[in-house]
Amino acid sequence: MSTPNGGATAPDEAATDAACEPVDFWSAFKRAHEVVRARVIADTAEAAGLSEPDLTILANLDKAGGSLRQSELAASLGWDRTRISHQLTRMGKRGLVTRERAGGVTVALTDSGRTAITAVHPGLDTAVRRHLTDKLSAQEIETLISVFRRL
Amino acid sequence: MSTPNGGATAPDEAATDAACEPVDFWSAFKRAHEVVRARVIADTAEAAGLSEPDLTILANLDKAGGSLRQSELAASLGWDRTRISHQLTRMGKRGLVTRERAGGVTVALTDSGRTAITAVHPGLDTAVRRHLTDKLSAQEIETLISVFRRL
DNA sequence: CTGCTAGCGTTGACATCTCAACACTAAGAA
DNA sequence: TTCTTAGTGTTGAGATGTCAACGCTAGCAG
User: Fold this and answer.
1) Model's pTM, two decimal places?
2) Residue A20 banded pLDDT, cuts 50, 70, 90
């Protein structure tokens, strides 16, 4: 073997092999993210007839009390101006949000939008627990938080 | 105004606070994935005039010796038939791959495609190290591998 | 008033991803 | 042979994301 794995004979089969190649570790990271994402979305947004970006925006508006400047919304999500504009246009056509000019542009939940996010919100927490945190030990969560913060 | 923020005004300071809410933990996961992804792609695919899906497909073909059945390629990536078909059509138009009917469809690297992936491959490993594994301790990597496998 | 600059948002073009519907091939049953 | 079924690919439409270019508004200098 070109990569020494320490003295152990072979206590942990494939795990160490996968760890040797950074690229494989990265692939595992991507895979894990994708799997959790698909399951959470299936249990929340899709179940309510919303897409993932719909849910993201509605949740942020709700957390902010129901309305935000478009630029603040974009900043809080780390989204591009163009991206938020297109997404809000689509959501406006479906009656989830309204936009009004007031210096900048203020985005607000409609009744329909508020109803949708209120219905989904508790399920979101449940879904994340079921598909992610319930499968991890407290110590693993601590480790991951530390890692995520560093990246 | 209508939303009580507890005592502190800072949104994300205390690790323990973020850990308490599964949804925040999930947000941190998504953010970490996105940050690493953007940096790795910027250092590899974009630097070579390729997109992320281009790179993914070229790397898999290269690892398999230069050609694969379209269905095997899709299976090894966990991609949809439709997705691989559209992507290969676009890549074919740019001269990166060819497709030939032989029972199923066999996808092969062109000279141009092989040149591209050969040029990028070493940089990919370096980029993943720089933006991910170099920032983690050996023990953290062990923990993450264990977690990723479980999900 | 005119012109400049900067911030903010929109638009159009294109790439990507997903879904539903269709086409082709191979294998087996009638 | 003919029909059926399963496996495999393609196509078109719609949703999403990114880039470049443009338009609008506000503030500020001339």
Assistant:
1) 0.81
2) low
Q: Under DSSP, is residue A69 helix (H, G, I), strand (E, B) or coil?
A: strand
Cβ neighbours of residue A48 closer than 8 Å, sequence gap 6 or more: A55, A116, A119, A120, A123
Triad B33, B117, B79: Cα angle to 5° = 50
Nearest Cα to Cα of residue B136 among A19, A18, A12, A11: A19
Chain B residue set in contact with A, beta carbons under 8 Å? 1-3, 15, 18-19, 21-23, 25-26, 28-37, 40, 78, 124-125, 128-129, 131-133, 135-136, 140-151
Nearest alpha-carbon partner for A57 in A32, A102, A92: A92
Cβ–Cβ of B33/A28 closer than 8 Å? no
For residue B127, give how far its alpha carbon lies from the nearest alpha carbon of chain A (Å).
Answer: 9
Whether the CB-CB separation of A145 and B15 falls below 8 Å is answered with yes
CB contact under 8 A, B29 and A36: yes
pLDDT, residue B35, reads 86
